[in-house]
Amino acid sequence: MHPIVSKSQLSPNVTRLVVEAPRIAEIRQPGQFVIVRRGPGAERIPLTIADVDRAAGTITLVIQAMGKSTHELTALQVGDAITDIAGPLGNPTELLDSGHAVCVGGGVGTAVVYPIAQALAARGVKVTSVIGGRSKEWVIYEDELRAAGDVVVCTDDGSYGRHGFVTEALKDLCEAGGIDEVFAVGPVPMMRACSELTRPYGVKTTVSLNAIMVDGTGMCGGCRVAIDAKTQYACVDGPEFDGHKVDFRQLADRLTTYREFEQAALERWQAAHAEAH
Amino acid sequence: MSDFSDRTDLTLADRLAAHLEPLPKKERMRIDRGSMPEQEALARAHNFAEVNLGYSEQLAIIEADRCLQCPKPYCIEGCPVAVNIPNFIRLLGEGNVKAAADSLLGDNALPCVTGRVCPQETQCEQVCLRAKTGKPVAIGYLERFVADWAIDHRDVFEAAHPAPTGKKVAIVGSGPAGLTAAGELTKRGHSVTIFEAFHAAGGVLIYGIPEFRLPKDIVQKEVDRLVADGVEIRPNSIIGKTYTLPELREQFDAIFVAVGAGLPVFMNVPGENFKGVYSANEYLTRVNLMGAYNPDSDTPILHGKRVAVVGGGNVAMDSVRTARRLGAAESVCVYRRSRDELPARREEVHHAEQEGVRFEFLTAPVEVLADDKGWVSGLKCVRMELGEPDASGRRRPVEIPGSGFVFECDMVVVAIGTRSNPLLTSTSPDLRVNKWGYIEIDDNLQTSMDGVFAGGDIVRGAATVILAMGDGKKAASNIDAYLRGEFGAARTEMAVAVSE
Q1: Which of A162, B336, B411, B441 is least surrounded by Cβ atoms within 10 Å, i.e. has the fewest?
Q2: Closest to B275 (Cβ–Cβ): which among A42, A254, A265?
């Protein structure tokens, strides 16, 4: 059991849970994830480890409430516990030793890119973060990323920071030149747009793929993604891949596999939840 | 001549009280093999309840009387874990089911499992003397009866308390090999900790083999029995990630690696990543471990209406029968060789056919087709004919030119085998593996790392539950010798012999 030691709401649908998981906190490296199963009957879902506190033996999970499983996780309170957390899984981020990295985060992906920015900064790499959201209230991890370097905030409605998409800010940085690598994590269309944008500039672009998984150890093959037209598993070969080689269309398509099921499950959950209140 | 027919009406308790004389051989030979009561085929094709219902007490006693109690029993040699079959059957026939259970459990840590999933027809029952002139004794059914009785009467068994040796053994993987080794090592007084990657113990017994063949509560009870005997199970512990094997080696006196062959093999044909294509591993794990057959489960599963399952082994049978239960109007097994080469157990093939599963033999997929939304719409196949025997001795399927056709379907399950998972081995630099990634072992199941033993599918490649259990039993015995210091000497001699 993994008790929740603190909880905070980062945006209207993104929640941060700090949970006890001493072994994972001890050995996790940036880029790795865990598989979480809330309790009996619950799904196994992959979640990135946004941060750790080794001394306290805790890990930070940042969860966007999308379907039933994520709604139930974000409904947990301090003192509640998550039954199963397995990991750390996936390969650690391959970190630059020097130079300039741009870390692009869209929505909840900002929490995934944060540990990468943090680790790069600790190695002396210059970090510029570009993060975005629909409007001001949807922007997360801004203060944390400022500790790693410059931050450009973009909002779709212009309510905060720069008006427009993260890709526009990324384009300006690419034009300015001197970028050694771009890390882009967020919704599939955003990662695809970032990868397409950097391609003509020849800037290495790494993306973190949120494919559907069951075990997270290579056993089910559900998370298969096409990289340079070759099938790889996001769980054991990734989760990070060269964005210029990813078949984003296939990834986006595979992510819709259970959409109907997820919608129905969410509606049932919301109905039951409404009755309970 | 005395009439023995009244004997069949006696209950176990009656028999035990009556101290019956053993039945003469001639009388034994007169008894026909009892059929396994089954759930009716059309009903069970739509539910996940167990197909085989198990012998009644009466059926079991009568069947026990069929055993000839051979002075030189071949059946024991035919059993990968060398269960003393005539002994437990004799005790059962005498009405002493408790003693029968003690005997069985002494030889086999998971009899509820093997009584259900072992291929007895190619092992103990194949060499049964009665098979020469008729049907063999139903050893598997009797094993199941005695094992289930033991599960239902746990309170009559005294917990064994072997003197603790103070030695700690780590077992990696809680499948049949790991659970068997855990039971054997605990009996010998060693402290056992099992590391399991999933959130629940049982390995292939819970994620792979479906409920209708092996109910999960049965597996859980077998696991509970081990836990009651002192085995510690650490779920969510992925060796190679959460801990490495060298790290474990520092903390334990010996290790048994039994992680199974974890990666699914795909066909490597175009279209395999369309929505609606599953590996059998994923399909069965969602349905079994995650309980997706139950509408209340949070884990989704696609309910194909026309399903093609590619492959001809037991995993293919489990998949094709599962698809039928999840509502497939047509669930078809596509196999590139003919019926005679099917690697699946005959009973599974028979059950599948009874449930309305169709077979497309001598058929090989060449492409998965999809509609404009990326959903599977068909499986393009070619017909095959059998040519010369290949390395496995089976006749090799050869494509018939111009035989291509499309099987329309909305789901494809690929059940053509597994390969080794490198998570553990790639983080154990001193652990030697072969070119396929399977762990290399010596005759004692010891790996290239001192005190680290391995068995089951991660050594053999995909095999059976009982062979994995046989490895678990043998490894436990060798680990015990290793821990008592009686193993090193023999090993050194062997090494010297090899180097000479």
Answers
A1: A162
A2: A254
Region A93-204: CATH code: 3.40.50.80
How near does any CA of chain A get to the CA of B199, in Å? 6
Number of H helices, E strands in chain A: 9, 16
Whole-angstrom CA distances from B453 to B109, B201, B450, B491 are 19, 20, 8, 13
CB nearest to A87's CB, from B242, B286, B299:
B242
- For residue B126, count CB atoms less than 10 angstroms from its CB and return exposed for 0-12, middle for 13-18, buried for 19 or more: middle
A253 → closest Cβ in B275, B279, B282: B275
Residue B131: DSSP 8-state: G
In sequence order, which ranges of chain A are alpha helices (DSSP H)? 22-27, 68-75, 109-122, 142-146, 166-176, 188-198, 234-237, 248-254, 259-276
Residue in B closest to A269 by C-alpha = B298
Instruction: Of B63, B115, B112, B116, give the one whose Cα is nearest residue B89.
Output: B63
Q: Are residues B285 and A214, on separate chains, in Cβ contact within 8 Å?
A: yes
Residue B494: pLDDT over 60? no
Contact A218 B421 (CB under 8 A): yes
Which CATH code is given to the segment(s) A2-89?
2.40.30.10
What per-residue confidence (pLDDT) applies to A151?
Answer: 97
Q: Parallel, antiparallel, or unpaired: how do β-strands A126-133 and A58-64 relate?
A: unpaired
Q: C-alpha distances in angstroms, B194 versus B42, B215, B232?
A: 41, 22, 6
Domains A2-89 and A93-204 share a fold: no
Amino acid at B388: E
pLDDT of residue A276: 65
Residue A95: in which H helix or E strand, if any?
none
| DSSP letter assigned to residue B239 | B
Q: In whole angstroms, what is the distance from residue B266 CA to residue B275 CA?
A: 15
The tokens for B356 are 């309305």
Tokens of A34: 């865990």
Domain residue extents for chain A: 2-89, 93-204, 209-265
Residue A242: other Cβ atoms inside 10 A: 13
Q: Which residues of B touch A (CB under 8 A)?
A: 197-199, 235-238, 241-243, 262-264, 266, 272-273, 275-276, 278-279, 281-282, 285-286, 290-291, 296-300, 302, 374, 421-423
Inter-chain touch B241–A218, beta carbons under 8 Å: no
CB-nearest to B423 from A42, A68, A236 is: A236
In this predicted structure, the answer to whether residue B487 has a pLDDT above a threshold of 80 is no
